[in-house]
């Protein structure tokens, strides 16, 4: 795609149960500010069914136009083909999506189709001399690297929680229904869907996450993490050692090989602070850590650190929280 022809920012907004995920809405708010400074528009893309309400929410978050494409079920190759066709038609200078599993599935494929580059786990986007600069963590999050994609459009998957969502009720926009032909694009065939018999968890959308690590000791003690999460009206997270010990299902894993999260409150119980885990939750608004090792790396990033036996401290936290809630 010619650089001179490219204009506007396209954002794929993922939906679950006909509702847009916060990650996509956060990106729309950021995209609106970037596009306004360039005198351009934001084009949101929603794929699914019965998404008219979601389209209006996307407009409130910053979209000038919303493209609706009807598709009953998620198929990676179909979605990436749809986004590719829309990019070829509307010629955006930038394509964004939340860095969810779906976003990380389809965006690199879209970038490959358009012969351009794709940045992942983006934490900031700036406009410098007409080029988009993407700030991404490298070396396990210990270094922040600025990246410029020379190809057009630039494609990037953004870390959830990187930007603040702003919904403006008075904002208006245009809703466009598109029919995109993507025949003969599916190379994989779904032969069976197996539902995991476990609590459904959406870590990326959670405002409060209570995570447990190896320091919890055993599965019975890990139940304290679940009780604290319940008391805080939050969800349960875990480190890889806790997952591998089968104390909690893999869907709860936070870290480089799990979910990248940015809740308002993150409580780390018995977590030492290994880089693999910290890089997945460093964007949290407020971090509380409980660990018996006063030299644990987790205390270097915690807003509040409690040095003590997690099995003794957590029950006290639960008790105090319940007292406050009963007032």
UniProtKB/TrEMBL annotation:
GO terms for biological process: fatty acid beta-oxidation using acyl-CoA dehydrogenase. Binds 1 FAD per dimer. Its cofactor is FAD. Residues 9-194 form the Electron transfer flavoprotein alpha/beta-subunit N-terminal domain. FAD binds at residues 214, 239-240, 253-257, 270-277, 291. The keyword Flavoprotein applies. InterPro entries: DHS-like_NAD/FAD-binding_dom, ETF_a/b_N, ETF_a/FixB, ETF_alpha_N, ETF_asu_C, Rossmann-like_a/b/a_fold. Belongs to the ETF alpha-subunit/FixB family. This is Electron transfer flavoprotein subunit alpha.
């Amino acid at each position: 795609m010619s650089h001179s022809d490219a204009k506007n920012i396209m954002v794929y907004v993922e939906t679950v149960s006909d509702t847009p995920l916060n990650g996509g809405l956060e990106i729309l708010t950021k995209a609106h500010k970037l596009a306004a400074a360039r005198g351009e528009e934001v084009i949101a893309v929603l794929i699914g069914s019965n998404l008219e309400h979601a389209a209006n929410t996307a407009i409130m978050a910053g979209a000038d136009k919303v493209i609706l494409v009807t598709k009953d079920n998620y198929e990676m190759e179909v979605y990436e083909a749809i986004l590719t066709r829309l990019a070829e038609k509307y010629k955006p200078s930038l394509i964004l999506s939340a860095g969810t599993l779906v976003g990380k599935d389809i965006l690199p494929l879209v970038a490959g189709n358009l012969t351009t580059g794709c940045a992942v786990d983006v934490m900031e986007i700036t406009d410098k001399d007409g080029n988009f600069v993407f700030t991404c963590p490298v070396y396990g999050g210990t270094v922040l690297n600025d990246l410029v994609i020379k190809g057009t459009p630039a494609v990037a998957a953004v870390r959830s929680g990187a930007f603040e969502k702003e919904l403006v009720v008075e904002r208006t926009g245009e809703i466009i229904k598109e029919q995109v032909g993507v025949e003969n694009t599916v190379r994989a065939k779904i032969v069976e869907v197996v539902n995991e018999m476990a609590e459904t968890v959406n870590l990326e959308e959670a405002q409060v996450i209570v995570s447990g690590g190896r320091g919890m000791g055993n599965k019975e003690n890990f139940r304290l993490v679940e009780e604290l999460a319940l008391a805080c009206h939050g969800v349960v997270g875990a480190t890889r050692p806790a997952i591998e010990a089968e104390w909690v299902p893999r869907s709860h894993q936070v870290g480089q090989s799990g979910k990248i999260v940015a809740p308002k409150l993150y409580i780390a119980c018995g977590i030492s602070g290994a880089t693999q885990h910290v890089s997945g939750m460093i964007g949290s608004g407020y971090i509380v850590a409980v660990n018996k090792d006063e030299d644990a790396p987790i205390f270097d990033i915690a807003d509040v650190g409690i040095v003590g036996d997690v099995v003794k401290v957590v029950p006290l936290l639960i008790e105090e929280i319940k007292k406050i809630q009963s007032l």
